[in-house]
């Protein structure tokens, strides 16, 4: 009977894809249409990201400790949707800032909650395969909405994305409720090998002592510092171009999402299939190599059609990391009872990088150029790759916790 819950879980990932990030890349387009400058937009995005950081690690602790994981997803989805709808009616500074802070706080719970539910239903043996399917459906949802947004933005303007997001939020609530709560083993969901009740606290400093966690977290911090701003930069660059474009700003933003998501679907499935054979560490190297090439292409090719290769490469990197990172953490911390807290700590570090990225890129663009900003981000991406190559083999092997499918 758990098969039905796993199938519904796939549908949940499809619908929540458009809800979790709020307006996502459409936020920049929406604010540009209301005469916001790139630097102001970057700062607002950063405030929302930093607010989410406050909730990231506690979110993992909460998921480990609670039996109400479905309620967490429903509450978060409703808060994100309502705060985003407020932008449509009141696109002023105070409302925009408040909306991004609420979105950041609420979105922080979604990923660990879904990972916890997945692990609680599928168990350690089925976790990797189900996460691959989760990510494939998640990317499929993003792509489907992006295609719809491209059409509706062309016809009715950027405001149509608000309606699409609200519709997806309704289906998110329905599919979450359709998951049988009795199918979730909450001890397995937190990585406990003993049925000794739910954890109520997490030894934070004990987690910090795990060197493999520190290396993974800091590498992802640099990766997302270099990566997060590139998609909104593409859209804002076109929106602010005096020469115009054959695409409307909203349609262009939708295409950036659709292209990357189309690539992420097969990449996520392939990652879940080959991770046990080649190891998480080697697959993560591929994702890290892709990002500097992506930044270089965006820097030297100023044509609006650069979105095709740039977003295809984004799909490769994101498709790998979306499956490999949860799988890596779930394996490393199995038996500790703190899987979701550990995942939350990694997400905190990568969220720190992602939240600082728009402000960094916006400041560089305001004082130099779009091309130079991409080059700086590419340099940061190379630093992430170097750290992973230098430290991951030694740290993971000396930690003694890496199984065959995590070895480099």
From TrEMBL:
Transmembrane segments: 41-59, 71-90, 96-119, 140-157, 163-180, 213-231, 251-271, 283-301, 313-333, 345-366, 372-396
Keywords of the record: Membrane, Transmembrane, Transmembrane helix
Domain Major facilitator superfamily (MFS) profile: 198-408
Keyword Ribosomal protein appears in the UniProt entry: no
Family matches, as Pfam families: MFS_1
Gene3D superfamilies xrefs: MFS general substrate transporter like domains (1.20.1250.20)
Parts forming coiled coils: none
PANTHER family, sorted: MAJOR FACILITATOR SUPERFAMILY (MFS) PROFILE DOMAIN-CONTAINING PROTEIN (PTHR23539:SF1), MFS TRANSPORTER (PTHR23539)
The protein's name: MFS transporter
Native source species: Rahnella inusitata
Lineage per the UniProt record: Bacteria, Pseudomonadati, Pseudomonadota, Gammaproteobacteria, Enterobacterales
């Amino acid at each position: 009977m758990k098969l039905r819950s796993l199938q519904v879980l796939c549908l949940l990932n499809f619908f929540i894809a458009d809800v979790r990030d709020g307006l996502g890349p459409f936020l920049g387009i929406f604010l540009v249409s209301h005469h916001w400058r790139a630097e102001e937009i970057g700062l607002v995005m950063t405030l929302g990201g930093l607010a989410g950081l406050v909730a990231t690690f506690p979110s993992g602790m909460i998921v480990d400790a609670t039996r109400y994981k479905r309620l967490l997803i429903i509450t978060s989805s409703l808060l994100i949707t309502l705060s985003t709808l407020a932008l449509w009616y009141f696109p002023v500074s105070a409302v925009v800032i408040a909306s991004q802070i609420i979105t950041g706080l609420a979105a922080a719970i979604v990923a660990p909650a879904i990972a916890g539910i997945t692990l609680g239903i599928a168990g350690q043996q089925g976790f990797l395969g189900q996460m691959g399917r989760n990510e494939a459906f998640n990317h499929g949802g993003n792509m489907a909405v992006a295609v719809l947004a491209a059409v509706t933005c062309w016809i009715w303007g950027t405001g149509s994305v608000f309606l699409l997001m609200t519709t997806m939020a309704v289906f998110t609530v329905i599919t979450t409720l359709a998951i049988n709560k009795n199918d979730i083993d909450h001890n397995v969901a937190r990585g406990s090998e003993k049925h000794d009740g739910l954890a109520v606290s997490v030894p934070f400093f004990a987690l910090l002592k795990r060197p493999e966690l520190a290396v993974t977290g800091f590498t992802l911090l640099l990766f997302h510092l270099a990566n997060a701003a590139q998609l909104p930069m593409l859209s804002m660059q076109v929106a602010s171009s005096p020469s115009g474009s054959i695409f409307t700003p909203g349609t262009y933003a939708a295409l950036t999402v659709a292209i990357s998501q189309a690539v992420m679907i097969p990449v996520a499935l392939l990652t879940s299939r080959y991770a046990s054979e080649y190891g998480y560490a080697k697959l993560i190297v591929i994702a890290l190599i892709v990002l500097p090439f992506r930044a270089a292409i965006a820097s030297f090719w100023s044509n609006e059609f650069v979105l095709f290769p740039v977003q295809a490469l984004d799909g490769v990197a994101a498709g790998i990391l979306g499956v490999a990172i949860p799988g890596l953490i779930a394996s490393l911390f199995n038996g500790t009872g703190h899987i979701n807290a550990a995942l939350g700590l990694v997400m905190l570090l990568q969220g720190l990088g992602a939240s600082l990225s728009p402000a960094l890129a916006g400041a560089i663009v305001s004082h130099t150029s779009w091309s130079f900003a991409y080059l700086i981000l590419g340099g940061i991406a190379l630093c992430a790759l170097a750290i992973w190559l230098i430290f991951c083999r030694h740290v993971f092997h000396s930690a003694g916790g890496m199984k065959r499918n995590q070895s480099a």
